[in-house]
Design brief:
2-nitropropane dioxygenase; nitronate monooxygenase activity; 2 domains; 12 helices; TIM Barrel; alpha/beta; three-stranded antiparallel β-sheet; oxidoreductase; dioxygenase
Length: about 300
């Protein structure tokens, strides 16, 4: 099925030669080859999560994406982590540090986002990142470094807001987990569409860093009754959940981390990725047209 007509032309759509400024977040498991291909086929750009894959498995995933692409030359991405050896834990300006290293795109995720995230809200972080990047040039093409907005984006209103702030596009995770093509378990999808706005927790028990997930009884027990234990274990360089699993393997499922952003409270259905992209573009265009109608016409001289 062909992608919908192009509505927005941004530096992101021009850079990747895509129709829509929508990127699939490269989530481990959930963002598999089928979903990545579906987002690319819909006119955005699909990205698979490469973390933890062996070179052979990653090649299989890439080959599978290509099999599902309607246009075999269409772009897609692979999300990888680059380890830093000998780094120190200290407070840094992440954006400026990335610019100093030489990047082409900054993906800025507000604190509403799922998975590893900070505390700065989307409405504060995105404009701040855009201000920092406005004079930076991409080493790839010499053009301005692009900012892609993430964190709490589930529909076209989030896309419209991002473009209004000055972002070149959006990086979307949780909304695509609740898609037909997502590789996430059925339970993960169902937990998203059944979430309320207060059903989330940010915890360090799974990785030692703040991770935003669906709140469960297991997490509540840790956060309300075992805070001292969390501090002690993490100070020793141990992951609380891994320590608990060694003692109690039976808590593997009830103790599982279901990553999702707070925007899950606004997601109520599981549907094809193309419908998600199309709705996002249509609604964003409507929002921007509506906003433009608020402008008072100025006399032409």
């Amino acid at each position: 099925m062909p992608s919908s007509p192009q509505v927005f032309k941004t530096p992101l759509t021009e850079l990747f030669n895509i129709k829509h400024p929508v990127m699939l977040a490269g989530m481990n498991v959930a963002a598999g080859p089928r979903l990545a291909a579906a987002v690319t086929n819909a006119g955005g750009i699909g990205v698979i999560g490469g973390l933890g894959q062996t070179p052979k498995n990653l090649q299989r995933s890439i080959d599978e994406i290509k099999e599902h692409l309607e246009d075999k030359n269409a772009p897609f991405g692979v999300d990888l982590l680059i380890p830093q050896v000998g780094g120190k834990a200290r407070k840094t300006n992440h954006v400026q540090k990335a610019l100093d290293q030489g990047v082409d795109i900054i993906c800025a995720q507000g604190g509403e986002g799922g998975g590893h995230t900070g505390d700065t809200p989307f409405s504060v972080l995105i404009p701040a990142c855009i201000d920092i990047c406005k004079n930076a040039k991409s080493p790839l093409n010499g053009k301005p470094v692009l900012v892609v907005a993430a964190g709490g984006i589930a529909d076209g209103r989030g896309l419209a807001a991002s473009l209004a702030y000055g972002a070149a596009g959006v990086w979307v995770g949780t909304r695509f987990v609740a898609s037909v093509e997502a590789g996430a378990p059925k339970m993960h999808k169902e937990l998203i569409v059944s979430s309320g706005y207060d059903d989330f927790a940010k915890t360090t028990i799974y990785t030692g860093r703040p991770l935003q997930v669906r709140k469960t009884d297991y997490i509540v027990d840790w956060e309300e009754n075992r805070r001292d234990e969390i501090k002690k274990l993490t100070a020793e360089g141990k992951i609380p959940h891994e320590v608990e699993l060694e003692k109690r393997p039976e808590i593997s499922l009830p103790g599982r981390a279901w990553l999702m952003g707070r925007v899950a409270g606004a997601i109520h259905d599981i549907k094809p990725a193309k419908e998600i992209v199309d709705e996002m573009i249509t609604t964003a265009a409507q929002c921007i047209r509506q906003t433009n109608s608020y402008l008072v016409p100025q006399a032409k001289l």
